[in-house]
Structures are given as structure tokens and as C-alpha cells.
Amino acid sequence: MYAVIKTGGKQYKVATGEKIKVEQIAADVGQEIVIDQVLAVGIGSSITVGTPLVLGATVTVTVLSQGRHDKVTIFKMRRRKHYQKRQGHRQNYTELQIGVIAGAAA
């Protein structure tokens, strides 16, 4: 069984037992969260697609850790103009363990 969930403005295809890193969620490590923005639920080859959400479908997740991704380096340069700019960015993330996928059966 799998589900397509939406969190942090992005969509993720998840199955029970998987670990995913999503945009930072304000929650403590070890806390269980229920994600109710489920866009699709599938069992094998059958799938239920919501319009836009599947009514009654939820995904229970556990927060494993909070952290920051590796640094992304931004380098801007204008040739012959003596302009160079270096900048770095580290995005925050929350690592989740997917638990129970409940709701509309496909």
C-alpha cells in the first residue's frame, strides 16, 4: 500500500516503513504527526485519486530527527566587470518514518 502526500509545498510518494526528508515541520523528535493532505492512495495496481484530496485518508508519521542539508554554493560572476559574489545556503529538514496509511481503500 502506498500514498501520495503533500507537505511543505511538495508531493511525496510514500509506503509504510520508509524514511523521507521533508521541509521543516515544527515538531519534537519522537512525536507522531497525522498528515491529512493525501492526494492518492494505492493498493497494488488499483488507485484512488482525490479531487484534490482523498476524503478520510490519513498517513501517520513519526519524527526521527531535525537537521540541515549539505551546503549549496551559489556563485555569481559578470565577466570583465570585476564582479564576483559567493553565497551559501543550508536548508532545514525534518526526517520522517512513515507509519500507518489509513483511509479510503483503493
UniProtKB/TrEMBL annotation:
One of its GO terms (molecular function) is rRNA binding. This protein binds to 23S rRNA in the presence of protein L20. It comes from Polaromonas vacuolata. One of its GO terms (biological process) is translation. InterPro entries: bL21-like, bL21-like_sf, Ribosomal_bL21, Ribosomal_bL21_CS. HAMAP family: Ribosomal_bL21. This is Large ribosomal subunit protein bL21. PANTHER family: 50S RIBOSOMAL PROTEIN L21, LARGE RIBOSOMAL SUBUNIT PROTEIN BL21M. Part of the 50S ribosomal subunit. Contacts protein L20. Belongs to the bacterial ribosomal protein bL21 family. One of its GO terms (cellular component) is ribosome. NCBIfam families: L21. Keywords: Ribonucleoprotein, Ribosomal protein, RNA-binding, rRNA-binding. The keyword Ribonucleoprotein applies. It comes from the Bacteria.
